[in-house]
């Protein structure tokens, strides 16, 4: 299966009001310029243009597909079994403040399946999981107590917002000063929880899966769009601004 790439923006300290206003194009497929079926297929990629910061490419080693959505346009489509995208290395320091957001549309009700929109690999576990948690039956932002097999004293911030197969905006934040994590769903704040000793996840940022007990896990079946990262904890009003901003044309 063809390897494909997506491009993810890391918003290094940019204010969301400025960030949203500066977005030019989010997740579009490239103009192929080829119609002859005898020619080799061009690899897919997406571009995210923003106010400041860097752009990282996430490779999709087992492939993925594009889906034309009536609400958000061209979005990444993942099969829930082995498709995901990953950067070459870590995108945030999980011992410092950070935020992560994504638009997600599940293809099926998750039930007993855990589905991760975004994570960042450690050796044995992800440093964070922005996901649907099967254990809690809710949207969640998870932190594992340590990068070990079967960590026990884990912390989960959850949301009481409904889990549906409609487009859902997820945000997870970590404030290193207070050691608190929080999840937001469609701009609505969920619980905040205080974590234990922070640890650094030094592996790649992953889209559409996480890592558990040293193995890839929590594959997402559905669509993902507009993944963003910040090296600070977003304020509630900034999260609302992200949720209410219209998709880029």
From TrEMBL:
InterPro entries assigned to the protein according to its UniProt record, in alphabetical order: ConA-like_dom_sf (IPR013320), LamG-like (IPR006558), PTX3 (IPR042837)
Listed SMART domains: LamGL
Keywords per UniProt: Disulfide bond, Membrane, Signal, Transmembrane, Transmembrane helix
GO biological process: immune response
One matching Pfam family: Laminin_G_3
Domain of life from the UniProt record: Bacteria
Official protein name in the record: LamG-like jellyroll fold domain-containing protein
């Amino acid at each position: 299966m063809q390897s494909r790439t997506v491009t993810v923006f890391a918003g290094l300290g940019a204010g969301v009001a400025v960030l949203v206003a500066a977005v030019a194009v989010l997740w579009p497929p490239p103009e192929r310029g080829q119609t002859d079926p005898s020619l080799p297929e061009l690899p897919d990629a997406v571009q995210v243009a923003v106010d400041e910061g860097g752009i990282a490419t996430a490779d999709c080693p087992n492939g993925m597909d594009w889906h034309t959505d009536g609400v958000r346009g061209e979005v990444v489509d993942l099969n829930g079994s082995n498709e995901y995208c990953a950067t070459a290395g870590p995108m945030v320091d999980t011992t410092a403040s950070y935020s992560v957001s994504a638009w997600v549309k599940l293809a099926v009700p998750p039930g007993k399946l855990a589905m991760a929109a975004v994570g960042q690999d450690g050796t044995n576990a992800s440093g964070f999981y922005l996901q649907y948690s099967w254990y809690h039956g809710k949207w969640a932002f998870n932190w594992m107590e340590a990068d070990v097999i079967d960590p026990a004293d884990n912390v989960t911030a959850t949301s009481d917002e409904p889990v549906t197969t409609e487009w859902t905006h997820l945000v997870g934040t970590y404030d290193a000063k207070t050691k608190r994590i929080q999840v937001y769903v469609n701009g609505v704040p969920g619980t905040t929880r205080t974590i234990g000793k922070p640890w650094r996840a030094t592996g790649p940022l992953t889209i559409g899966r996480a890592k558990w007990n040293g193995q890839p896990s929590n594959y997402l079946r559905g669509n993902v769009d507009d993944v963003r990262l910040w090296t600070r904890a977003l304020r509630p009003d900034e999260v609302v601004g992200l949720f209410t901003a219209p998709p880029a044309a």
